[in-house]
Design goal:
mainly alpha, Growth Hormone, Chain: A, three-stranded antiparallel β-sheet, 70% helix
Length: 471
């Protein structure tokens, strides 16, 4: 049977796949794509986990720079602006340690989850987050005199806690693997978008919690205690509600090599394009989030209440785009056109955000809709990549994607914290260069988007079954 006989056009009905995948064994492909998974558990436990983890992340993200400034204030006697710049660089180093340890553990988490299930590995990830939140909280002034503050050893202890969190693995590996396990090929993009929407709602809720702590004028240790509570709830949720249904696959010790499954990102030309897009997404988004809060407070002179309101608007718009806009655009224009549109919005957002000043930062409330539209590219690209490998390889694929995320994030953190922010932090300089540069680099994403139009087609299972019967 010829491949073209069960392919439809780029925007028609059917499941978008690479042309190489479409040319594989039709019966095997049809069996995988037609699996309705009638015994699959519901999606809500995965969504609840995403919310709890994102809540903890949002709560700590708003106050982690306070931890860095507090720790460094014990070692440096400099001006407030210089301390903030040093704290940004120190935060970047902490994140690079986290990313390096995550890179070494990601493959092992993916491989072991294919063998032992997603749940035990996710529990380990949440335990690492719990340790990280508790240690960060101890580096801040105590609440009502309970449990003293770490001072001299805090500089080293923070690196230890970040390394522990990284070595215990990234929560997204098993979460996205679990979501792919319980979703059909057609459901996967929508379910990944739902996770993205819940992620932004969790971040928004965490941001509001951190803002409430700041307004109450109590120690920011309270924020990290709330984040730790979120991690504890996540551990209880996974223990009680997750049910693994993925096929199990044995492994060899050689497969625990951090880059053992990296070849999955290049199994065909379409996956290479997806990998390039994901690298650019992770590079730009993590570069933005690593400096966004410090940039708004230091260079745009935003008050915490204004910044909290901006975060809330941004997160709510992101959730709306994930839950409503992305599925509508995919139905109307197809996945590839939606990804290209998302990248164009992200490019425009970075370029416009770099032009904001103390006098006109109010326009940030207008242009954040571009950030929300740009955030759709990540879950959609990941969901398309999951279709290119067999179900028993999903853990390995997510481990390889996590390593790709680590590489992109590390590059973004280094470029922002060690190059652009220190180089453009003096009065009279173009502070927005830290956002202008990723905006220019994201223009590179348009090439793989254009290539994907030629490298993909649609598989229509109903048409394939009819042609098989005729044959």
């Amino acid at each position: 049977m010829e491949m073209v006989s069960f392919m439809s056009d780029a925007r028609g009905s059917g499941i978008l796949l690479s042309t190489q995948r479409l040319s594989s064994n039709c019966a095997t492909l049809q069996a995988q794509l037609n699996d309705e998974k009638p015994n699959a558990p519901p999606l809500w436990p995965a969504m609840c986990l995403q919310f709890l983890h994102s809540f903890a992340m949002g709560t700590s993200m708003m106050t982690v720079l306070e931890v860095c400034r507090t720790v460094l204030s014990h070692h440096y006697e400099v001006s407030d602006v210089e301390l903030k710049v040093k704290a940004q660089a120190y935060y970047g180093h902490l994140m690079m340690v986290l990313m390096l340890c995550t890179m070494f553990s990601s493959q092992a988490v993916g491989v072991l989850s294919d063998k032992y299930g997603r749940r035990p590995l996710q529990l380990g990830c949440q335990l690492g987050q719990l340790i990280d939140h508790l240690v960060a909280g101890l580096c801040l002034p105590s609440l009502r005199g309970h449990i003293g503050q770490l001072r001299d050893p805090a500089w080293c202890v923070l690196f230890f806690s970040r390394a522990t969190a990284g070595l215990l693995g990234r929560w997204r590996i098993t979460l996205q693997s679990y979501t792919a396990d319980i979703s059909t090929a057609e459901q996967c993009p929508t379910h990944m978008a739902y996770l993205g929407g819940v992620h932004t709602i969790g971040l928004c809720t965490g941001t509001l919690m951190a803002t409430a702590v700041a307004n109450a004028e109590i120690s920011f240790r309270a924020s990290f205690l709330c984040a730790a509570c979120g991690s504890v709830c996540a551990i209880g949720l996974v223990s009680s509600t997750w049910r693994d249904i993925a096929p199990r696959k044995d492994y060899t010790w050689r497969e625990l090599n951090p880059f053992a499954s990296f070849h999955l990102l290049a199994i065909n030309r379409t996956m290479v394009m997806y990998s390039i897009l994901l690298f650019l997404v992770y590079f730009s988004l993590n570069m933005f989030t690593s400096v966004y809060i410090s940039y708004c407070e230091t260079f745009l002179k935003m008050k915490k209440k204004t910044l909290g309101a901006l975060n809330m608007v941004m997160m709510l718009e992101c959730a709306t785009c994930m839950f409503i806009v992305q599925p509508a655009l995919v139905r109307q224009f197809g996945e590839i056109s939606t990804i290209m549109f998302s990248f164009l919005c992200m490019i425009l957002f970075y370029l416009l955000f770099s032009l904001l000043t103390i006098q006109n930062f109010g326009y940030a409330f207008v242009i954040v809709i571009l950030y929300a539209l740009g955030s759709m590219s990540n879950p959609l690209t990941v969901s398309l990549a999951t279709r290119e490998v067999a179900p028993e390889l999903q853990g390995r694929l997510q481990g390889a994607i996590a390593i790709l995320e680590t590489l992109g994030t590390s590059f973004g953190l280094f470029l922002a914290g060690d190059v652009l922010v220190p180089a453009y932090s003096q009065p009279g300089q173009f502070f927005g260069m830290v956002f202008f540069v990723p905006g220019l680099l994201l223009i590179l994403s348009l090439w793989p988007c254009c290539r994907l139009y030629k490298l993909t087609g649609r598989f229509n299972p109903d048409r394939a079954s009819e042609l098989q019967r005729i044959g």
